[in-house]
């Protein structure tokens, strides 16, 4: 089993362009265990014990998702609320995430320039994602800077230039996994 667990939360991965491509790249390189929340729990009922055992079995955790309204998709929020329990993830006895490397891999359907103090959003990506950082640090995890991909509008048509950008994002994602998180791929893409 891989040391790294990617918890992917995309409500419709079959229609995703970016997140699906990232997961395909990871699976092709065999560098992490991929767990798709919406496939595992189509009814929204999370098996807390199974999820905690899955986290316990890995040293590195990546939460991968498209940013929805400056947050994660609803099932990932529910996963965080239900799985990261007192006495397991935090509290005087909660040590499950202590020392584990945790990071986010997110896609945003807006240009990077929008995520600045003087941009359309008015805040940087790190500020928008701060609740995730605070949660992981509260659980004593080793939180790392996120992998962030901008500009692909999910409602846009994809031409050759857009497909090339998406392919590059998949290569960049694999490079980030290897360099930032010391995840070694089994083979090349």
UniProtKB/TrEMBL annotation:
Which range is the signal sequence, renumbered to this chain?
Answer: none
The lineage's top-level taxon is: Bacteria
UniProt name for this protein:
General stress protein 14
Asked if the keyword Oxidoreductase belongs to this entry, the reply reads yes
Alphabetically sorted, this entry's keywords are: Oxidoreductase
User: PANTHER family given for it?
Assistant: GLUTATHIONE-REGULATED POTASSIUM-EFFLUX SYSTEM ANCILLARY PROTEIN KEFG
Q: Which SUPFAM superfamilies match?
A: Flavoproteins (SSF52218)
One Pfam family of this chain:
Flavodoxin_2
Q: Where is the Flavodoxin-like fold domain?
A: 3-167
Q: Which GO terms describe its molecular function?
A: electron transfer activity; FMN binding; NAD(P)H dehydrogenase (quinone) activity
